Automatic annotation (TrEMBL):
GO terms for molecular function: metal ion binding; methylmalonyl-CoA epimerase activity. This is Glyoxalase. It comes from Devosia riboflavina. Keywords: Metal-binding. SUPFAM superfamilies: Glyoxalase/Bleomycin resistance protein/Dihydroxybiphenyl dioxygenase. It holds the Pfam family Glyoxalase.
C-alpha cells in the first residue's frame, strides 16, 4: 500500500519517535544505552488483532523498549510475530532511512566511539565548497551502523543544518 503525493498541507511539524526493528532486543538495549547515555524508559510487549490490523499485518507480537532522548524517542522493536526478515539497503536506495544524532564536537565523539569499538563507514568529513553545497560548509558528518545494520549518523551542524531545539 502506498500513499499518493499530498496536494493538501497536513501540518505535521513535530516528530515523536523513530521505530527501529531489531533482531535481539536485549543486545540493542545495551547498544543504544551505551550510545546515548540514556537508560531505557520502558520495556513491554504488544500484540493481537487490533495491533496487527493497524499495521496491515495478519498477526503481531512485539517486544519493545523506549529510549527517551531530549528531542525524540527511539522505539526498539523486536517482532516475534510475524517472523522478521532482514532488510538490506544502501543509503542511496529509495525508501532507505537513517537516524542522525546531533553532537557538539564530532571529532571527540568519533574518537570515543571508535575507542569503544564502533566501526564507521568511512572517516568523518567536513562539508566544503567542493562538495557542491551552496550553504552548510563547516558541517561535519560520519556514518556508522547499529548491530543489525541500521544506518546511523553523527552530525556537528553548521548553517542550514543547525536548528533551534525547542
Amino acid at each position: 500500500m502506498t500513499s499518493k503525493t499530498l496536494a493538501t498541507t497536513i501540518g505535521l511539524s513535530r516528530a515523536n519517535h523513530v521505530g527501529i526493528t531489531v533482531s535481539d532486543l536485549d543486545a540493542s538495549i545495551r547498544f543504544y544505552e551505551a550510545l546515548t547515555g540514556t537508560k531505557i524508559a520502558n520495556v513491554d510487549s504488544i500484540g493481537g488483532p487490533r495491533m496487527a490490523a493497524v499495521q496491515g499485518l495478519d498477526k503481531v507480537l512485539i517486544r519493545y523498549a523506549n529510549v527517551h532522548l531530549e528531542n525524540l524517542n527511539l522505539d526498539l522493536l523486536q517482532y516475534d510475530e510475524p517472523k522478521p526478515g532482514r532488510a538490506q539497503y544502501d543509503n542511496g536506495d529509495i525508501g532507505a532511512m537513517h537516524l542522525c544524532f546531533e553532537v557538539d564536537d564530532l571529532q571527540a565523539v568519533y574518537d570515543r566511539m571508535t575507542a569503544a569499538g564502533v566501526s564507521f563507514s568511512g572517516e568523518p568529513i567536513t562539508f566544503q565548497d567542493a562538495d557542491g553545497l551552496r550553504s552548510g560548509q563547516g558541517t561535519k558528518v560520519a556514518y556508522f551502523a547499529d548491530p543489525d545494520g541500521t544506518h546511523l549518523e553523527i552530525i556537528e551542524p553548521q548553517g542550514p543544518f543547525a536548528r533551534t531545539i525547542l
